[in-house]
Amino acid sequence: xxxxxxxxxxxxxxxxxxxxxxxxxxxxxxxxxxxxxxxxxxxxxxxxxxxxxxxxxxxxxxxxxxxxxxxxxxxxxxxxxxxxxxxxxxxxxxxxxxxxxx
Length: 102
Known about the structure:
By secondary structure, this protein is mainly alpha-helical. 52% of the residues lie in helices and 0% in strands.
């Protein structure tokens, strides 16, 4: 069994796929997904850019660029490839802010 399969099995799979999970709302699913982002991209991280200054469209475009860049080898490229387009939409909408200036 691969390491990835073991990790998914240990975690119980995605929240929305678990039989014992309550109906996942937009906010609940997005909150779960963005936990991976905010571990590095927060105001407190210091070394990596905070995502607080980006709107949803900017975040979505950046994540899709990382996902589709076949020659990209950074951590962000690898992480983005693991998300579906629908998950990228949730992440972007949850983290994006409408009240930021360019």
